[in-house]
Design a protein that fits this description.
globular; 7 strands; Rossmann fold; five-stranded parallel sheet; 282 residues
């Protein structure tokens, strides 16, 4: 069991790393002149917690057969994903400066053929959960102990392929499969409930045969506790609905649909840098 002091130290480390990941992601979007900063920032705390405290991985051996698999289904939020991979040691921090440059390995959408730590090419939405479910089934068939994790956006759940995969995962009792939904309630153009309503989301997943828990996706202690209790129920895949804020950590971006896309100016980047530095020091 993790003691209080250890948990406190870990939370401080995660907070510091998350602030750095957020800043890198914003600098990358600014450099490229394109990106999805709002979703980068809402997903950061989830990604950092997974890669620095939960996933069984070996960054120096990215193809280690016993590793947990993680699929970044919301692949358009590659800024936060790449910055997290760099934070965890899969790629260099220096490589982040090449984001979306000609011939860069850091495409707008992750490419497993180019970067270590990327398990699947993603970006077209609705693909990640089917891939992760297939991986979990493969682990089961191999008699292996590694787990399969996938992070989706909430607007992404409007894609029907997710629900086909959900039924399949329940049918095969894949309790080694973990879905995390970045529930920031904003998608391209508007709030999710104005576009194609998802609520009541927990009940929908339970109806499909999943064990479901909700968590504050920016509370490191709550995230750690939730992840450490996986699987939630033997014989059922686990769904974590992480309630988040689009643009988390930067005041002028938070909960603003226009920052689904958007490129910060030099002045806005300076403001963001100051706010993130203050959060890291908290």
């Amino acid at each position: 069991m993790t003691g209080v002091a250890e948990t406190g130290d870990l939370v401080h480390e995660l907070r510091s790393r998350a602030s750095a990941v957020r800043l890198h992601a914003l600098e990358m979007v600014h450099h490229a002149g394109i990106g999805h900063p709002g979703g980068d920032l809402s997903a950061t705390d989830i990604l950092v917690t997974l890669y620095h405290a939960i996933l069984n991985i070996q960054p120096q051996r990215p193809d280690w057969p016993g590793r947990d698999r993680f699929v970044m289904s919301k692949g358009h939020c590659s800024g936060a994903f790449y910055a997290t991979l760099a934070s965890a040691g899969f790629i260099s921090i220096e490589s982040l400066a090449t984001y979306m440059d000609p011939l860069s390995l850091l495409n707008g959408h992750p490419d497993r053929n180019k970067l270590p730590g990327v398990e699947a090419n993603t970006g077209p939405l609705g693909h990640g959960l089917p891939i992760a479910a297939g991986a979990a089934l493969a682990s089961r068939m191999q008699g292996s102990s590694w787990r399969s994790f996938v992070l989706t956006g909430d607007g992404e759940l409007q894609e029907g392929s997710n629900w086909e995969a959900a039924m399949t995962a329940a049918q095969y009792k894949l309790d080694n499969l973990v879905l995390i939904v970045d529930r920031n309630r904003i998608q391209q153009g508007d709030f999710t409930e104005n576009t194609l309503g998802l609520d009541p989301l927990p009940e929908k997943w339970r109806a499909f045969g999943w064990a479901v828990e909700e968590v504050d996706g920016h509370d490191y202690t709550a995230l750690l506790s939730t992840f450490r209790r996986l699987p939630f129920q033997a014989g059922k895949p686990s769904c974590i609905i992480a309630n988040t804020v689009k643009g988390k950590g930067v005041s002028f971006m938070e909960n603003q649909p226009k920052w689904h896309h958007g490129v910060p100016t030099v002045e806005q980047l300076s403001t963001a840098r100051a706010e993130l530095a203050a959060e890291a020091a908290r």
